[in-house]
Amino acid sequence: MYQAGSKAYQQVSLETSVNQASPHQLIVLLFDGALNAIKLAKLYLEKGNIAGKGAAISKAINIIDNGLKSCLDMEKGGEIAANLDNLYHYISHQLVLANLHNDLEKLVSSYELLDNIAQSWREIA
């Protein structure tokens, strides 16, 4: 019972955050979601929960490919947008390989790359 209530509260809290967020804050939320999913995948991998690891990696890839990449304005963003697009593609590919080979090192390096971009994005504000 408590767990269901907790999940409902988290969902309402997330929806409120998204509805009240500026475009800049929405991108921060996407970074946070992808980073948390990678962190969770690492924990699952360390505990031998392969199904959980796969689901968490899929969530991270989905956020990167359908969230962060879709926010790029390739016309106005020029070289920076193109470089970010390439970097997002690289991170997603590394996550796929981490999933296929249960590669902890690729998970960690993907997290660090994405976290560096996220930190830079946070500093823009």
CATH topology: Four Helix Bundle (Hemerythrin (Met), subunit A)
Write down how many β-strands occur, each being a DSSP E stretch of 2 or more residues: 0
Which radius of gyration do the C-alpha atoms yield? 15 Å
CATH class: Mainly Alpha
| Percentage of residues in strands | under 5%
Fraction of helical residues: over 70%
Structural class: mainly alpha
Short description:
The chain is mostly helical. It is 90% helix and 0% strand.
Protein model, in words:
By secondary structure, this protein is an all-alpha fold. It has one domain: Four Helix Bundle (Hemerythrin (Met), subunit A) (Up-down Bundle). Helices cover 90% and strands 0% of the residues. It contains 5 helices and no strands. The protein has helices at 2-20, 23-47, 50-68, 74-101, 104-124. α2 packs antiparallel against α3 (50-68). This is Flagellar export chaperone FliS. Keywords: Bacterial flagellum biogenesis, Cell projection, Chaperone, Cilium, Cytoplasm, Flagellum.
